[in-house]
Automatic annotation (TrEMBL):
It comes from the Bacteria. GO terms for molecular function: maltose binding. This is Extracellular solute-binding protein. The lineage of its organism: Bacteria, Bacillati, Bacillota, Bacilli, Bacillales. Belongs to the bacterial solute-binding protein 1 family. Residues 1-30 form the signal peptide. The keyword Zinc does not apply.
Amino acid sequence: MKFKKSLSAIGITALLALSASLTGCSSEEAGTNAKKTEIVMSGWGGNPVEKKLLEEVLADFEASHPHIDVKFNVINDQYMDVLKTRLIGGTAADVFYLDAFEAPALFETGAVEPLNKYVTEEFDLDDFEKPMLDAFKQGDELYGVPKDYSTLALFYNKKLFKEAGIASPPETWDELQEAAKKLTTDDVYGLGVLPNIERMYYMAEAGGGEVIKGDKAAFADDRVVKELQPIIDMRLKDKSAAQPSEVGAGSNAGEMFGRGKAAMVMEGNWNIPYLEETFPDIDYGTAEIPTVNGKKGTMSFTVGYAMNAESEHKKESWELISYLTGKEGMKKWTSKGFALPTRQSVAAELGFDKDELRGPLVNGAEYATVWQDGPFLPIVMNNFNNQFLSAYLGERSLKDALKDAERQANKEIKVTE
């Protein structure tokens, strides 16, 4: 009995020792081969240079955050429809691109994680261009961080300006109208126009009217009509403006400008690399958008990173967002000039604020109207654009067109409420 008891004790001791040894081994292996956290990020594709830049930024992030792997999921078609479907179905990415235009409606669903609790003083929110940062807020709560943006600037053909005897780009809308008349010839229009609200929103509200008021369309207001009437008059009366499709350029104002069919267009930062690649011989400059009623104005289009409220890896998701929108990540992402950095310090470091072509775009950031105005803007946009085009083509008066558009937009809004 004593023998058996002793053997049993030895056996138990040995087993405990073996177990401890195995446990120690396993812990050591776990320390060296700890499982990484995979973060999925959804976005749309870009051109090859942008794709390469993003891959480099994500590789840098993974190198400095060895506990995280990032999988970039590209949604090429119907981005928001696919994203919403995945959010509803519980299969959406941890982090995703979010256009400011779509942001308010998505915030209201509760699908986007509030970020205030993650933001530290070191992250320096004051460094961001305020209109772009505010586009991802509801009240005081931040729901996204803007990764890049573009405003609109006036692109003008220096050769055509010289031939017309115009020394410098127009600074007021009245000057622009007069310049457009002088620049118009048998095969060149003074101004290339995209007749849609996303390009004219700042102008529509320059006289004190509002495109949307209290979640209702309000753009049939006489003050809005008055500010937009010059666009109609330039085409129908002065014959000095046209849209790209009228010269066989589809819907691309950059192509219309590059082919010399328009002496001026109002385009964004994206037009600079487009012209460099497609029309490298054109001699052009950029200037801030001419003032309307003495007020500076332009549009701004911005995209941010947002976090899925249902993500199981929120800490790691914020690490990714804060790196991509931090100074280091943003500098690399915007270094080639395809997009403008939303951090003022990065724009200054890259020299974009002093750049001959990009300077006017950067200068417009502080007073820009962001392309965003509540959850019903998509409905307002569709109805406005459909009817405004009929007035632009001379089929009816602008006032009548906008009355019908406003009435229909508010019917559709009422259905969705």
